[in-house]
Every structure is written in C-alpha cells, then in structure tokens.
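Duplicate of #3305? Posting structure anyway:
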C-alpha cells in the first residue's frame, strides 16, 4: 500500500535489501506519482519504506503487480571522491556508503550522476556510464568509461549512483537450463464458436539463439529463437493449457538514429578505461548469442526425446565507416578488442558489452562515388 498520513511511505511486508539513501522507483501503481523515482529517508523494518513528504499519493489497493525497485543510491554529502593514482580509476567512499551493499558484480555497468544540484561530480569526465571492474566496501574500481576519469574530491556533493539489472553468461553450476511450453493461439474453428480457441504448443523448448540487430535509421530489434522437442495442438472445445502468460509491456522502441549515446570498438589496454575507438561512425551492427541447441532424435520417437546444448558462442558483424588502418591492423595482429554500445530513452537505458573478442575480415569496401566502409566479423 501507499500511505501519506505521516510520512509518505510504501507499506511493504519485507524491507530486506533496502537502506536509507537508496533511490527507488515504483512500478505498476495506479497513481502516476507513486511510479516516480524517490530517495529513501527512513525504513521501519518489515513495515515501510519512507520517502520525502509530498511525493506520493494514497493508494490502499494497488494492482497485484505493483512493486518498488531499488535503482541506485545517493551518497551523503562529500562521501564520494575519484582517485586516479592506481592502475585503474576508483570511486572512493569515505565510509558512509558500502559499495558491497549495492550488489555490484564485475562487468556490471553503472551510471554516475543525477539531475539535481550537487548530484554529480563537478568534472564531466567522472559522470555517465562506467563499467565496474571490482567492488569493495570503500572502492569501486572502473575499467570502462566514456572519457578518461580525473581526480576529484567530492566536497559538498551528494552524488547519485544508478544501478541496473544484469544479464550475463554464467559458468558451471550457475548455468540454469530451463524448458518452456510456447503457445500460439490459432483462433476459433467457426465464427459461431468464438470462445472455442484452438492453439499449438511447442513443448520442451530451449532458448537457442538471440540476434541483436542495429541497422541504420531504424529501430533496434532482438530476435529470440527456440528449439523444441515436440509439439501438440488443442482443439476449440478443450481448454488451453494451464500456465503463466506474462503480459507484454508496451513501451517505445529504441531508435538507432537518436537513442544511442555511445558505440565504441576499441583495443583492450591495461590501465586505460577510455581508449580511442577504431571508428567514429558505424553503419550497422549485428550480434548473435548462440547456445547451439539441436534436437536429439531416436527410432520409435516422434519429434525428439531431448535437446542437446552445445558450445556457448557470441559473434557478429559490424560495418563501419573507414577512417584509418587501425582496425585492419587489429585483425592482422589478433589484438584483444572490446565492443560496447549504450542506448538511452526516457530515463531508461540498455548497455550491451562484449568485453573481450578478436576481429576478422577487415577488407575495405571501396566503390566509385561511395564512402569507404570496413566490414568486420
């Protein structure tokens, strides 16, 4: 529930994981103010999460999927500094903020800085998207940044640190393989029987391949394919299968012309969080994440009795506008390379990172009356 009697608060059954100074966002509440970003000012254990007065609207019976999500933390005044004397730059906490309480992992991206006065570092280079190399109680080590970070003492600043949700490839026992039933409804068999819905089911389906497609002057798309062991159908009089059918969230598409803040393909250099990019502009990017799933068939079995998961592979292709021969040399020398791209829209964003890879192809495409492009695998 949301109660504004005194003070403004979200009433919850569990406050585990929340702390004073957290930045939280409401989701799926009926009243728009309850879905805004707020600063946690106090916590009553397993009872309520409090925010500043006047920020919320009473809502005694919110929708069943209403929730609050922690999206970051606001440091106390003067708590955060930037130290650049080591191999990598470090955001240093003077003791109030414990970075380990934010659940950060190596390779995760964060956003430094807010919109309010004093909510970001004074030096622009220290704000924006950063990749976490390691996190201890007092030190957040950064190994990727849009610009080279500089030393700064954050006196009088209450710097915001935004934390997102992470998807990454895992190793060993952390790998979770799940199977799904995918339902495709096929309409009613007769116009006189509109409630008798037919359906096809793909059973024992395992995610096989994901393609991320970033073309020129279009929307970014993600295609996800499955390999299933078998299929079945439901006729109209029979009820559809029981199961969870998540609602699709309607949201604006990410436009590849106006919603990308950074795309960088660069050499991996020890101690350099902001190496120069091989290219200033790219024409298109396609990335494929592949589980190499295949059906396992046998005599006497219709369909497959199992699906086999092969090597986890990540690859893709880039077409860039040629500027110099640096990328061609990286292909020849098998240089350690990294690619990341960041898309932002309506105060939300996606950061995609391939931390270590090798390049192939690299033969310039030279045509009369056309700019020179360089395809890379």
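Output from current build:
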């Amino acid at each position: 529930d949301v109660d504004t009697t005194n003070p403004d608060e979200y009433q919850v059954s569990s406050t585990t994981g929340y702390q004073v100074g957290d930045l939280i966002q409401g989701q799926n509440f009926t009243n728009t103010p309850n879905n805004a970003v707020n600063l946690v000012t106090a916590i009553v254990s397993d009872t309520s999460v409090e925010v500043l007065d006047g920020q919320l609207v009473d809502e005694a019976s919110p929708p069943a999927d209403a929730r609050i999500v922690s999206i970051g933390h606001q440091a106390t005044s003067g708590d955060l500094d930037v130290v650049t004397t080591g191999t990598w730059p470090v955001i240093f906490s003077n003791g109030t903020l414990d970075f380990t309480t934010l659940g950060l992992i190596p390779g995760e991206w964060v956003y430094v800085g807010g919109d309010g006065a004093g909510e970001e570092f004074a030096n622009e280079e220290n704000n924006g998207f950063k990749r976490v190399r390691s996190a201890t109680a007092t030190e957040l080590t950064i190994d990727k940044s849009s610009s080279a970070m500089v030393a700064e003492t954050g006196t009088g600043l209450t710097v915001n640190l935004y934390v997102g949700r992470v998807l990454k490839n895992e190793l060993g026992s952390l790998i979770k393989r799940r199977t799904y039933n995918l339902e495709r409804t096929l309409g009613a068999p007769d116009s006189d029987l509109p409630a008798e819905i037919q359906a096809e089911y793909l059973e024992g389906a395992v995610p096989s391949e994901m393609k991320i497609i970033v073309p020129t002057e279009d929307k970014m798309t993600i295609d996800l394919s499955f390999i299933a062991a078998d299929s079945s159908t439901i006729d109209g009089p029979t009820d559809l299968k029981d199961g969870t059918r998540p609602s699709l969230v309607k949201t604006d598409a990410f436009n590849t012309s106006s919603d990308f803040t950074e795309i960088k393909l660069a050499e991996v250099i020890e101690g350099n969080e902001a190496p120069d990019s091989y290219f200033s502009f790219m024409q298109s990017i396609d990335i494929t994440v592949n589980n190499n799933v295949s059906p396992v068939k046998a005599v006497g079995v219709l369909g497959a009795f199992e699906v086999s998961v092969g090597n986890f592979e990540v690859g893709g292709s880039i077409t860039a506008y040629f500027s110099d021969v640096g990328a061609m040399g990286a292909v020849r020398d098998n240089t350690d390379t990294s690619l990341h791209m960041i898309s932002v829209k309506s105060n939300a964003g996606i950061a995609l990172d391939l931390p270590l890879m090798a390049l192939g192809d690299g033969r310039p495409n030279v045509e009369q009356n056309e700019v020179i492009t360089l395809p890379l695998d």
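Confirmed duplicate; merging threads. The longest strand covers residues 198-214. The chain is about 0% helix and 40% strand.
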